[in-house]
Amino acid sequence: MSEIYTETGFEYDYVSIGRAKKARRTYGFDEISLVPNGNTLEIELCDTSWQIGGLNLSTPIIASAMDSVVSPDNAGVISENHALAVLNLQGIYTRYENYNEILDQIAASSREEYVSLMRKIYQEPIKDELIYAAVKKIKASGAVAAVALAPFNANRYAPILEEAGVDIIFVQVTVVGLEHHSLESKANANPETILDIKKFCSERSVPVILGNCTDYNVALKLMDTGISGLLIGIGPGAACTSRGVLGIGVPMATSIADCKAAQIEYFKQTGKYIPVIADGGMAVGGDICKAIACGADGVMIGSPFARTKEAPGRGFHWGMATPSPVLPRGTRIQVGTECTTKELLHGPAIYDDGSQNLVGALKTSMATLGAHTIKEMQEVEVIVAPGILTEGKVYQRAQKIGMAR
Amino acid sequence: MSEIYTETGFEYDYVSIGRAKKARRTYGFDEISLVPNGNTLEIELCDTSWQIGGLNLSTPIIASAMDSVVSPDNAGVISENHALAVLNLQGIYTRYENYNEILDQIAASSREEYVSLMRKIYQEPIKDELIYAAVKKIKASGAVAAVALAPFNANRYAPILEEAGVDIIFVQVTVVGLEHHSLESKANANPETILDIKKFCSERSVPVILGNCTDYNVALKLMDTGISGLLIGIGPGAACTSRGVLGIGVPMATSIADCKAAQIEYFKQTGKYIPVIADGGMAVGGDICKAIACGADGVMIGSPFARTKEAPGRGFHWGMATPSPVLPRGTRIQVGTECTTKELLHGPAIYDDGSQNLVGALKTSMATLGAHTIKEMQEVEVIVAPGILTEGKVYQRAQKIGMAR
Amino acid sequence: MSEIYTETGFEYDYVSIGRAKKARRTYGFDEISLVPNGNTLEIELCDTSWQIGGLNLSTPIIASAMDSVVSPDNAGVISENHALAVLNLQGIYTRYENYNEILDQIAASSREEYVSLMRKIYQEPIKDELIYAAVKKIKASGAVAAVALAPFNANRYAPILEEAGVDIIFVQVTVVGLEHHSLESKANANPETILDIKKFCSERSVPVILGNCTDYNVALKLMDTGISGLLIGIGPGAACTSRGVLGIGVPMATSIADCKAAQIEYFKQTGKYIPVIADGGMAVGGDICKAIACGADGVMIGSPFARTKEAPGRGFHWGMATPSPVLPRGTRIQVGTECTTKELLHGPAIYDDGSQNLVGALKTSMATLGAHTIKEMQEVEVIVAPGILTEGKVYQRAQKIGMAR
Amino acid sequence: MSEIYTETGFEYDYVSIGRAKKARRTYGFDEISLVPNGNTLEIELCDTSWQIGGLNLSTPIIASAMDSVVSPDNAGVISENHALAVLNLQGIYTRYENYNEILDQIAASSREEYVSLMRKIYQEPIKDELIYAAVKKIKASGAVAAVALAPFNANRYAPILEEAGVDIIFVQVTVVGLEHHSLESKANANPETILDIKKFCSERSVPVILGNCTDYNVALKLMDTGISGLLIGIGPGAACTSRGVLGIGVPMATSIADCKAAQIEYFKQTGKYIPVIADGGMAVGGDICKAIACGADGVMIGSPFARTKEAPGRGFHWGMATPSPVLPRGTRIQVGTECTTKELLHGPAIYDDGSQNLVGALKTSMATLGAHTIKEMQEVEVIVAPGILTEGKVYQRAQKIGMAR
Fold this sequence. Notes:
Chain A is an alpha/beta fold. Chain A has a single domain, classed as TIM Barrel. The first copy, chain A, has helices at about 75-80, 100-110, 110-120, 130-140, 150-165, 180, 195-205, 215-220, 240-245, 250-270, 285-295, 305, 340-345, 360-370, 375, 390-400, and strands at about 15-20, 20-25, 30-35, 50, 55, 60-65, 85-90, 145-150, 170, 210-215, 230, 275-280, 300, 315-320, 330-335, 380-385. In chain A, strand 6, helix 1 and strand 7 (about 85-90) form a beta-alpha-beta unit. In chain A, helix 8 (about 215-220) crosses helix 10. The termini of chain A are far apart. The interface between A and D is large, with 79 and 70 residues.
């Protein structure tokens, strides 16, 4: 069974779940692969630079706004290595001046203590002066000052951020909805906590990135609010358990390719190019290459940075900007501290599994696929090549670790 | 290969198994996911209430009629937490006055002893006075008195139940068939043990829920017997091994969506809305959300309740109302006692895997998907997004428990 | 991509492997499931009897002609329990008078010694008098005397078998081909070792069952040779590694449904009904039910019988009638001795995984599906419901053995 | 969704990843299986010989040009056993006279030391005299002297090779592109390091094999450069991690069937038959059979040879001709030393998993499928029969190793 939408791009593939429900077949990174087309390049010819909100960035890699990934202390080294670090403004850095002690406590807590400890830690209120100080500290390190906050406190903190010299603001929530417009008309709406994204963007002196979103139609409407970029992805990350808890999640390859179509359509209508950033679900260099091949302009990754020696997580990685007091979803993962930020991004890689030298991997992939630029990389051929665990693969894997036979 | 049925709803997807057999492609919860549509709600705006058989229930969660899940002792706490507890009338509670000693024996038995112990325990006959006492005890706890019995003894025990003040009767068998009508015409049929469901319903002073069923046509006919609700699902539960033993089983997403279509059709024909209840195969909050998104009005779950501190199973969960003396199918699972009934349903959750705070998970999912009510939740977009164990996911999973690399 | 064959039955589903190769999508038991249709029966109404070669058998279960499954000693108990035992005539029973000592050696050998031990054991020639004695012994036990031999020595041993009073002869080879006709025309063909199946059948006083085969066209032609039954299946068994070694293997559901179509077509043309027997790949009761639902009249199983206390394998099971001296394919599996032959076939089952009480499982499945007879069971609805190992199932499985969380 | 390409061969199957990206469904060896067609042969009638570059080879098996697979010392024994050994000219054999000491160091290094050790080892320059000596040594052993080098140093070393008496030259790089023509026109192009494959072939006195490639159009153009064979495959090998690191990889069944179509088309246009060689991803005999059934004329395998007692790897196998200094992709696998080269190719097999007696397996498969020659083997029926790890298979597998129940 197949229903055709031809307004933009390709048809969708529909199946019948049952008589009362049809569903579209979607795809994740594990199901796709990239195909060389007979043109290859020398790696020196590959240019990974892109622009977002007027900033020129030499790699498309963004470190997630998570407490275990970016702190005011490692934003500098991330920036020196040509990635963009985004600080989570609802986390411990804006609640505690002595945030390093808090990080020590989290790292030292047992699995059983963790959830209640986090609940306690996040009861401490956010403080304006710590927001100000965090931005100043990042600026002082020479890095681009990028921060993320939730829609409900964006209006309140934006002036402080601008005063401190912020360069770019991410407004990020699990699922950004179009209802942010409609809710404001409610009588009891508090104008300070409900965000009119159009108004918010128009009042800012710095670019605003909005997310997260997975849908073509939603993306198309959000692009018309004055934002400078859109974050794509719901629930695919290593530290995110939305699909189990809420039943919600859209595989990344499909999400990106849909929102890319919205970008193309919006550009056709307005001449404005709004970059789309794949957020979450990318663990290795190959995933980053696939995200861009599906249409992403940039990628936002958490767990790879959490594994660096400079990461604030002390070998741990945990999800969600602010843990829910009653429904914890992001889990804590022990990721270890495997390499420096420099090695993560530019190598040399110690391991051969794609977890290190991410920029080198992207450039090598581009060279192999004949893509000079990120834009050309977005046009390479994608195939469906399920990476399912077959008997053969289990055997090969067992061989690798010396267990087969 | 595809054959089209357009009487109701969508086409079916057929494939050729071989020249002499075609088969429809069906879907389970693990293969689907839910998609936000750009409208989000504050969680306080989400209403999970529904009606069945004249009862107003504030959550769609029903505790299964299994000995390890509901006893006369924990029905009260389940009810206080806004779920409906259904007592199994063919189990130990109506065979033994000292059922707690029996539960101790079951918990203490080894894996080898278990099957024969169960065979022995269930040889004790059911006693009318224990049925009466069980209903009275549940009523006294302030709970809705809901009980389940098999078709063959429904006529016999119904008057006792009504006398004791039962509120709702579930008539439940692995597969309820339309032949319950035709069998009665047999000469040697014992009117007391063979159930004419239409007659049975018409003679009752309380609503009757019937099950289980997975088929559109069967559902449509059963809805015309006077029942107040229909249970959907064959063999998907954690404690059920029907597919291995009998080769029988229909994935839940398809079963629900098919029976939902029957509900819609029956409502169109008669104006009567017969709620459909997904029964079995839901282990986490996300599964409950998916069941409702496929069309379920309510969900019946066993193993999550078996894990509560108030559960009669003492950390164990076992299947089947009455174990077969020769062909055991339900297995016994050690599930532990992880949380209180209150924490199971309303949190706070200790773990982040969706196994706790089920009502909170449902409301959060509804809020994220923009569904104000259960009816709106039934209309959200479903996608096919296989949750197969890929190499990437195995890696992520290994990372979570600190084993990767 | 889809190509249509409408001569008989349903279309095939074709996909493109690449520009130079198309392939049909085929299905195994793990991918299908059976669906109740709203008619259920009391188990006493289910009749599992069938006829083959003039024999009336009360269950469709046949014990494989493998040394670890059937010996002259346990054929009697298998027969008493209403299954058909087939003795392998190329195995140790016709090479050694003291075959029990040989069985002891096999059971005592280490994994490293096994392959060379088997090579040595099978160098001993087959002896006419041992063939004669084996058949006599089986007859004396009151069992139907069924034996299996390979095409190349069928002509040689058939007269001895008939003299000894054999009841039915299986001529079995991995893949039976139509070329058995054409080869005979070769000048150097040895008439005693090359089998003309038509001639062979016409000369026999007892029915001949031929196999194995998976293809519609081959089945159609083989049915016209005078055989009384056809064995279906290549390489699906637990002790068979053909797919890994040779790349060859056809999933059972598709094989059966294709050969069933040949049976239907041949019956239409000639009025003769040639039973088809599914051989291999069935580990539990559910698999047997699925085989019949795909069209099988009988099922031939090895490993379940190898697990019985009366089995000759002493807790081991090994494949292939005669191991190849240079290319071993059948492996040896330690299966244990879990139950008696009676428990295997008629229960009571000790475990709930479908591995015991196979006849009880078949009857319960037939009752649940409303099938009075094997013929009605062949008409039940089959669905595609992949039993792939999803994350959810891994979790449920872990729960069962008490490992989850 | 499906788009049709009818120029050559069958249609492609396309799906929609999302609105902005469509993708073709591709297939690997684990997803396919081979089907007997009713004609079987005696194994003695099966001829596995083929021709490439004027050489007559009696088996289609080629040992990969990897340091752990082929050395100047074991090329002889590989040749004696009728396989073709290809020496890697960029590896340690042309950098070190005392290469055996280097091999000892690699085998003795820990997992942590391995990557940096390899980096150091490969900094030693390649020496002309060692190239010369290696070819001479292979010739002296009586073997066909086949060597592999990268495009960038092919022009430089080819004259030395011809002087030493090389028989066949493989020019091999991860992805061979058509741009080797266009790059030469660049002003700063160094004629000695940039390979014009057409010119290179025309200047050679020996046949040239080129690779690797996966695409129909690329294959068609490369076949017109004067090469004598084409290597097919990107990233499928056991020691290759391209898909994880770069996101790149095309499943072998599809790659072969596509390039086979190019071969057919090129032959139709020119009358020249350019053999295609499947390279990588084949672990067992069944994989080799499938590769040929998809259209391969020969197969190049690494890890099976690395497990032989004569292999230079000392029980280890590692990928890539020359490890990248910054982005290691090929991993090191401990494969053990299980059998002799003779046993690997011609048996007798010790194990029954298809890892030994590869020529015997191929011949047995051909006999079972009725294929007299490699060309007939290329025409056998292929089916899609997913070898996914289902619950049933996990159970069977557990049984094999005595773990089930």
